[in-house]
Amino acid sequence: MGPNPFLGVMYHWIGGFASATNFIPFRGIKRWSWEIYWIIQGFTAWIVAPLALAAIFVPGLHGILRTAPHEAVGYAVLWGAMWGIGGLTFGLSIRYLGIALGYAISLGLCTAFGTLIPPLYKGQMQTIVHQASGRIILLGVAICLLAVAINGFAGACKEREVSPQQKIEEGEADFSLIKGILVAVFAGIMSAFFAFGLAAGAPIAAIAHKQLLAHHRLDLWQNLPVLVVVLWGGFATNFIWSVALILRNRSAKQFLGAPGINPMRATSVTGATLEELDPTGLSASHRITAPVLMANYGFAALAGLFWYFQFFFYSMGQVKMGKYDFSSWTLHMASIIIFATLWGLALKEWRGTSRKTKALVALGLTLLIGSTLVVGYGNYLQANISAL
Question: pTM of this prediction?
Answer without folding.
Answer: 0.73
